[in-house]
Amino acid sequence: MSTRRLTDSDVRKAVQILDGWTGKLTWDRFIGELSHALGHTYTKPGLRKHARILNAWDMTKARLEQSTKQSGARSNGTAEIAHARARIQKLKAEVARLEQENRDLLERFQRWSYNAASRGMTEQQLDQAIIMPGGSKR
């Protein structure tokens, strides 16, 4: 397997893997799972450079620690119930991560908005379409 830069799609896949993670979480295990999913190898420092991955990592660690504390008090049911619980945990983790990313983006937008306004840029200037090479608009 080769190493290459992470694309937005790769980062999205990495955080999805973390959202659904169960069991012990280590960088070696995560890197192995990610390499299997993407067909490329990555290093811990390379992955830690991506804020979304690092945020998802921290949230997964916290979720797993909390789950370990709660599992002692909860009795195990059937395999279907265990599967449903795992699915619910994954979805809760994904929602929590997306809510944090949304808060981060709103904070960034407010900062950009203030900086643009303080430099005299209007909303119309900020909303202008981007003209791509070849004349197409975005």
Give a description of the structure.
68% of the residues lie in helices and 0% in strands. α1 packs across α2. The two termini are 35 Å apart. With 138 residues, the chain is mostly helical. The model has no long low-confidence stretch (mean pLDDT 88). The longest helix has 40 residues. The chain has one domain.
What Rg do the Cα atoms give?
20 Å
Low-confidence stretches are none
Instruction: Please estimate the helix content.
Output: 55-70%
Overall outline: elongated
Describe the biggest sheet? none
Features:
138 residues, mainly alpha, 6 helices, 0% strand
Topology:
Layout lengths: L7 H12 L7 H12 L5 H5 L2 H21 L7 H40 L4 H4 L12
Helix pairs in contact: 1-2, 1-4, 4-5
Write a brief caption for the model.
It contains 6 helices and no strands.
